[in-house]
Design a protein that fits this description.
about 40% helix; 12 strands; Rossmann fold; homodimer; six-stranded parallel beta sheet; 3 domains; 434 Repressor (Amino-terminal Domain); six-stranded mixed beta sheet; DNA-binding
Chain lengths: ~350, ~350
Amino acid sequence: MVVNLKDIAQRAGVSLATVSNVVNGYRPVGERTRQRVQQAIDELGYSPNLGARHLRRGRTGLIALAIPELTNPYFAELAEIAISEAAALGYTLVMENTAADREAELALLDGSRQRIIDGLILSPVRIGREEVLARTAGSPLVLIGEGVYDVPHDHIAIDNVAASHAAIQHLVAIGRRRIAFIGATPGGDRQSAHLRVRGYREALAAAGLPYRPLLVAGTEAFGRLDGMRAMRDLLALGDPPDAVFGYNDLVAIGALRALAEAGHRVPEDVAVVGIDDIEEGRFTAPTLTTIAPDKREIGRVAVRRLVARIEGTEVAGPLTVQTPFRLLRRESTGTPDA
Amino acid sequence: MVVNLKDIAQRAGVSLATVSNVVNGYRPVGERTRQRVQQAIDELGYSPNLGARHLRRGRTGLIALAIPELTNPYFAELAEIAISEAAALGYTLVMENTAADREAELALLDGSRQRIIDGLILSPVRIGREEVLARTAGSPLVLIGEGVYDVPHDHIAIDNVAASHAAIQHLVAIGRRRIAFIGATPGGDRQSAHLRVRGYREALAAAGLPYRPLLVAGTEAFGRLDGMRAMRDLLALGDPPDAVFGYNDLVAIGALRALAEAGHRVPEDVAVVGIDDIEEGRFTAPTLTTIAPDKREIGRVAVRRLVARIEGTEVAGPLTVQTPFRLLRRESTGTPDA
DNA sequence: GCGCGGCTCTATAACGTTATACAGGTGATG
DNA sequence: CATCACCTGTATAACGTTATAGAGCCGCGC
């Protein structure tokens, strides 16, 4: 049997409204009656019907986290953090899988889906500034990752150019000169790829190294398979690279596999660096040097900002938050950290 | 502005109830009026308020998938499948992370959480038959994975004993004699570990090989780190194994890492097999032989069964469904499939 | 011509909650 | 002693939907 407010009210001999006030403290209740009501709640085991509450309040208590692929460990780790953070704030997080599909992202931005969620955390991949600005749905939106949008929404991300720059700088520091990049997008439609290429070029220039277009490999997607294929192509060049920087850890891990298959030693012949610090990279042979974003920070700030917007709480700080990152040196660049 | 049934009714010049009937076809509506209403819906862009609908219907349209860890790629892949299957059936799937915690699993089984979801798909880890039977919450429950429960709920899983047996059989077939198992639980509290050890012992016996307790390594959890540590311990034995079967792919991948660090060749010195067929295993060096469960089938059947129970539809077949699996031979056992 | 069944559509009462307006009682104040 | 403000608690109207009961209309059969 399901217990509702009316049952409690009868049991405690008070009105419906009083019970409601005890439950959510909207208005003060005398100490004696409060105790009687509380006792009735405990005895009957009441928990509010969220559907009804949400109908009345106009909110559902649900927020969505939309990511391009759950099977990318980076996003799985991020989701795990966001789920627990949301739960701590009294919200339930539902995952949306956009599959890096433009239509899916657009549908989320102003779709009917919105009727059920109070707010959306979106990791956009295929859409840009215009699409975000054209958004009609009223519920709060927080963007994570990717590029620079300059839109009236919170945006949490690392500085992609600086992160890429740091990775290349490290490769230069260990003496590499022919450094390749895997994971540029032909059409330039993934902003973060564009930014990471920019950091790559800036770092090369800063080190006085030439920019060789042949060493920049485009990929269709950003998984292990893409990295492996691109690495094979690079190895087929007359003068192959002595280092590779992957768009993310998955791509870099695919490159590791291609290098192993072709009999090249890592890092002696080719050094490899990725981005994301997924756990997998701590167990590859060799272990993978990577740029580690602060996933916990990203997940927490994104959820907190969103909830603050939903509840109309004051939010401190600028719209765009750049979260810190650091370089983790492992075997794939030959110089593991202590 | 948010459009509701009343707006549509006014616009189309019909009653509220008629619009509702057009929307969800509860009762027949004349062709002419249906068209007028449909046109109004299209023009004003109506989508139902799910909170209100759910309050009225007594259902929320939400189902939960509770798994021990989202960062295990096996579960991430499974979740991706379940999410899309649920969406296809008109349900929204929310993820619950039990973190392999007994209290969390119990709370899900009969907790207040239930008020918001219509049904639960649970991958139990720390609870057994009694706890499931003691469940008080009324909403449907579907179990996935793990052991044999014999409870009045649908249960989707592979035959763990047979799967384990098949893996060992393969190792025997390629000539291995000292076969270790990594991922037994000391207390025996994870049922599937128990079953996989049983399959291991049965296969050894069938091959006329002795059961050596020293070659069965327990682990705290079932991640890469656990596998790595256990493998190190096995290598420290006076007479190390010539093959290893991991509780899952993650454990096996940890073992691969330990073997590489210690300078052992795989598969020449030690062959390695896992279970789960996570994508990662197709890119390790060497690639990982594994038992591949049919994840798509598991995810689909679990969601469909649950939805059928929720909606009171007739369900064919027995409560316990054993989904198929197959052995994928890769480099870590030296005999890749064609 | 009248009654009756069948077909559309309408009016309305829930579902369980929260917020508003109001009522009753008490203590302080003029 | 009357008045007023305050504090607790109550009655009730929403929120947007669906399901039930019933009303109007038309055609058919006697």
